[in-house]
Amino acid sequence: MEIPYEVTPRRDTGLYNAKLGVWLFLASEVMLFGGLFSAYVFLRVGIQDGVDNPWPWGLNVHKDFVWLGFINTLVLIFSSVGVVFAWVALKERNWRKFQSWMYTVVACAVAFMCIKGVEYNSKLNKHHGIKLIDNSVMEGKIKDKTDQIRFEATEASFSLQGGIPILLESIDGDFPEFTLQGSESDGEITIASESEFKKWFFDARRQTARDLVEERKRYRGEVAEGRKAPTPVSVSTSATLVSADPFKVRGNPRKIVAHTDDAINFRDGTKVTGKLTGDNVIFEVHEVDLQLVLPQNQRDALVWEVIDDEQAKKEFFAEQRKVYEEIKDYYDKRGEVIPEKMLRGHMLNLHYVHLGHGDGHHSDDAHGDKEHEDDDHGDAKIHRSEPKPSAKDADLNSSEAYASISVPRDKIKFMGNHGPRYGNYYALYFTMTALHGLHVIGGALVLLYFVVFGKRIYLKNPEHLANRVEVGGLFWHFVDLIWIFLFPLMYLL
Question: What is the CATH number of domain 20-127+421-492?
Answer without folding.
Answer: 1.20.120.80
